[in-house]
Amino acid sequence: MAGRTSSRVARETEARGLPHGTLEAFLSGDAAAFADVVRVYGYVVRGIAHRFWKSAFECEDALQEVWLHVYSQREAFDRTRLDSFPGWLAVVARRRCIEMLRKADRLPPLAAGESAEAQVSTDEPSRDLDRRDLERHLAAFKASLRPVWQRFFELHFVEGRDYADVSREMRISVTRCKYMKRVLASRARRHRGLRDVLDRRSAG
Amino acid sequence: MIHLKGEIDRHLASGLAAADEESLREHLRACAVCRAYHDEQVRLLRALAGDPERATEAEERRLAANVVRAAGLPVPVVIAPAPGAIDRLLWPGRRERFGLALALTAAGVLLLATVGVRQPPAIAFAIDGAVETRLVAGAWVEAREAPIELRYARGARLNLEPGSRGRVGAPGDDLLLQAGRVRCDVDAGRGEFAVITENARARVLGTRFVVDHVAGSTSVVVEEGRVAVHDARSDAKVEVAAGQYTSIASGGVLAPPSAARGFLDIAASPWAEIRVDGRHVDTTPLSHPIELSAGRHEIELVNPVSARHVEQIEILLGKTVTRKVKLEPVPTGFVLFEGSTPKTLPRLDGRAIALGAPAEVAAGEHLVERSPECAQPRQILRVEVGRTVRVPGC
Question: Which of B124, B224, B285, B360 could disulfide-link to B208, CB 3.0 to 4.6 Å?
Answer without folding.
Answer: B224
